[in-house]
Design brief:
Layout (H helix, E strand, L loop, with lengths): L1 E4 L3 E3 L4 E2 L7 E6 L3 E3 L4 E3 L70 E12 L2 E3 L21 E10 L3 E3 L24
Parallel strand pairs: 1-4, 2-5, 3-6, 4-7, 5-7, 6-8, 7-9, 8-10
Length: 191
């Protein structure tokens, strides 16, 4: 979904810009300046492919085969008992959604979403721009699950400033409620 704004955009007071439900890419084009204050963010974390889904999905586990692998995207997902997903996508033009981790006997993390921000003037990030993968669930079962991979953040701006954070990190894996199998694999980083 694309949004075009003819002037300046201020995201303040704890405001959050997001892509909404469903696995789609978000794009904002701002003709002026975009300012994200220290309490606000653009956040598409966990809005990519769901567990066991996407081109870099972690391999699912479960009893008796063990814990699921982490989702891959900009980097390979870590292995649990099962392999992590392969890396894919473009470093120069990251547009893909992050892949889900492999489930175990608990749910796996979803991949991060994809966001494209084009700003003719300056982008001031004192808050955050995030496309992190989701964490695996934390309840039940003997076989853990993998974290989702980070998604995509692609910025094209006249000038970038600020003291905030920009990240597309993989989600955390989880171990089941026993030590029967190794911990699930963590998600790979995004693009």
């Amino acid at each position: 979904s694309a949004v075009n704004v003819g002037g300046d955009v201020l995201v303040t007071g704890g405001g959050v810009m997001s892509q909404g439900g469903g696995a789609t890419n978000a794009q904002w084009t701002v003709a002026g300046n975009l300012v994200i204050d220290s309490t606000s963010r653009i956040d598409v974390s966990g809005q990519g492919y769901g567990q066991n889904g996407g081109p870099g999905a972690g391999v699912a586990g479960g009893y008796p085969v063990g814990s699921g692998g982490g989702g891959g995207y900009g980097g390979q997902g870590a292995s649990g008992s099962q392999p992590g997903g392969a890396g894919y996508g473009s470093v120069a033009q990251p547009v893909d959604l992050g892949s889900g981790g492999g489930s175990g006997q608990i749910w796996a993390g979803a991949g991060g979403g994809a966001v494209r921000v084009v700003v003719a003037g300056f982008l001031q990030v004192d808050g955050e721009i995030l496309a992190n993968g989701g964490n695996a669930g934390n309840a039940g079962g003997t076989a853990g699950a993998g974290g989702g991979s980070g998604g995509s953040i692609w910025l094209t701006v006249g000038q970038l400033a600020g003291s905030g954070a920009i990240g597309a990190n993989g989600g955390q894996a989880n171990q089941g409620n026993t030590n029967t199998f190794p911990r699930g694999g963590g998600g790979g980083g995004g693009g």
